[in-house]
Design brief:
Largest sheet: 11 strands, mixed
Number of strands: 19
Distance between the termini: 21 Å
Shape: globular
Strand content: 15-25%
Number of helices: 12
Length: 418
């Protein structure tokens, strides 16, 4: 397809590390794009499986595919190496174990060229054990300029007492103009200094340096979540990495026209990261760390035997609080996919749990759609009565300590409906 009588080259950067199981599906999903004027840069980041050979195979048979081999480094370094070899006016990033819909490139590029946008966002589709969840940006889908960009910058990283983000940090769901990425990479340098948050560092930096950003509701990118290890790994470098990342983010934001509102974003982000580091298992073991989420209001006053459904961050937070309640007995901790022990408690399947005698089932899931799906399954497949199922929107434990006053309202100008 041509746009305004010219063809725009899009560079697709795919960092690859030991992804032989899913790599072909990933590359094929790009080759099958309806928009055909693109190049693929496969950056083999020191893979020890057959990923490097697969990359070379695609490069031999496709003239628009290039393979770069390098010693193992962090993902940021691999992405940056791909960018340095890229020739496109716009850039997309894809992780080697994910895949994209055939119309992703054409749709996002068309919107970008219509408005000369620097960044175009889209949703992320989480693929977990056969279950699909879609996460959109919280801010309205619009074309943002001037005061509109200021509005985005005032809430994209953190917003409200929950300090939740309103623009998803996933680099892979965005089409970004090369000139903007070039500025971002120059400021960050050769190494982002962190394995945590590098996606957000680049994404939020790109938006902060942009003149036009388009937020869309499009659902094109499939993120494959293979699950977390049931044994929690303690990251002893968490706070050091956090400080390095915040310094890099500050350097990026200082180059933005909206540095005044972005300064508050960094401070709020620092509060959230520090609390998360103390609450979860970054420096402490899961047994000693504090809960990240408060029990929902819907659970207050409940007594008796409880089945806890969900063994992620929300479930771990609920478990810590329930374990210290005198009038509540945890008879089973359930997770659809995890097995083993967490904090000395055995994780079991729902069929096992429901044979133990219970008064209530507490769903410890943050996403409302996922929680609704679990509720429906409990009712229809397991015969659990509606009044026995409890779910409330999880809230961060630190929210009660945070006062957040909005200084940047939704603009009446500076953005356009799409």
């Amino acid at each position: 397809m041509t746009f305004d009588n010219k063809t725009i080259l899009v560079s697709v950067i795919i960092p690859v590390y030991n992804a032989e199981k899913y790599l072909r599906q990933c590359i094929d999903s790009v080759l099958e794009q309806t928009y055909k004027h693109f190049e693929i840069l496969l950056v083999d980041d020191g893979s020890t499986d057959s990923s490097g050979e697969i990359c070379d195979e695609y490069a031999r048979f496709h003239s628009n595919v290039t393979t770069i081999h390098q010693k193992n480094a962090k993902q940021y370094v691999a992405r940056r190496a791909g960018f340095m070899a890229a020739h496109g006016e716009y850039v997309m990033h894809i992780d080697a174990d994910d895949w994209v819909e055939p119309n992703m490139m054409e749709t996002l590029l068309s919107k970008a060229l219509e408005c000369d946008a620097d960044v175009v966002t889209s949703a992320i589709i989480l693929e977990r054990y056969g279950q699909r969840d879609v996460i959109h940006d919280v801010v309205p889908d619009n074309v943002y300029r001037d005061d509109g960009i200021r509005y985005l910058c005032s809430r994209m990283v953190v917003h409200g007492a929950s300090l939740d983000r309103e623009i998803e940090p996933h680099l892979a769901t965005k089409l970004i103009k090369s000139s903007i990425l070039n500025g971002v990479y120059k400021i960050i340098g050769d190494d982002a200094g962190t394995v945590n948050g590098e996606d957000g560092l680049v994404c939020y930096g790109a938006i902060a340096l942009s003149d036009t950003v388009i937020v869309t509701l499009g659902e094109y990118y499939h993120y494959r979540n293979n699950g977390e290890s049931i044994t929690h790994q303690i990251n002893k470098n968490y706070f050091g990495e956090m400080v390095t990342m915040l310094k890099k983010m500050n350097a990026l934001f200082e180059h933005s026209r909206y540095a005044d509102v972005l300064d508050k974003q960094i401070k709020g982000y620092a509060i959230r990261l520090m609390y998360e580091g103390c609450c979860m298992d970054q420096l402490l073991s899961p047994e000693l760390s504090m809960p990240l989420y408060d029990l929902p209001q819907e659970f207050m006053g409940i007594k008796g035997k409880i089945v806890l459904y969900g063994a992620g961050k929300v479930g771990l937070s609920y478990f810590k609080q329930i374990s210290n309640m005198e009038d509540v007995e945890l008879v089973a901790w359930v997770d659809k996919n995890k097995r083993g022990y967490i904090c000395g408690q055995k994780i079991v399947g729902i069929d096992d749990a429901l044979t133990r005698g219970y008064d209530k089932v507490l769903i410890a899931i943050k996403n409302e759609d996922s929680a609704a799906s679990i509720r429906k399954n409990l009712q229809e497949q397991h015969g659990v009565k509606t009044e026995k199922i409890i779910w409330g929107k999880p809230t961060y434990a630190y929210e009660k300590y945070i006062t957040w006053n909005d200084s940047v309202p939704m603009p009446v100008s500076g953005y356009a409906e799409i």
